[in-house]
Amino acid sequence: MKTIKILNYIFVAALGFFAVMFGINRLGNNTANQAVEATLYTAEYCSDIIGFNGPIPLAINMIDGKIASIEILDNEETPRFLKRVTDANLVEKFYGLTPKEAVSLDIDAVSGATYSSTAIIKSVKTRMEIYDKDVNPSPWTWQLFGIIACAVALCILSFFKKTNG
Hints:
Blueprint: H1 2-28, E1 37-41, E2 58-63, E3 66-72, H2 79-87, H3 99-104, H4 114-135, H5 140-164
Antiparallel strand pairs: 1-2, 2-3
């Protein structure tokens, strides 16, 4: 009987250790779930971000976890405002950045196209934040799972100890 209790405690410790180590491994392996190439669209996530005449949908092309290109899709924006944005190479400033870098990039709106450029900047940052959370879920969920599993196992062991001993 004592051997079974010891084995149970070893099992609980191993389960907790596995969960903690898996979480730590996920912390250092941020690109594990990123597709080599992906196209991310902003329309679904950024419809409330408005330029001068409405939302400005974008297609953000990712290669190896970095922004490779950004395409401005069909929209209702005034063409002369969008021309100012494209002439200022606004979207190109995001090229080569990881999602975290894009979110933290301090970038100014384009003078003369403030609404349009601000909407594009916010849309890129919003979509990158969502993408980063999707491909890099928090490792703490696994650690929390390990702690809960250990707590449940210890409660069960304590219950059997009280009823059997």
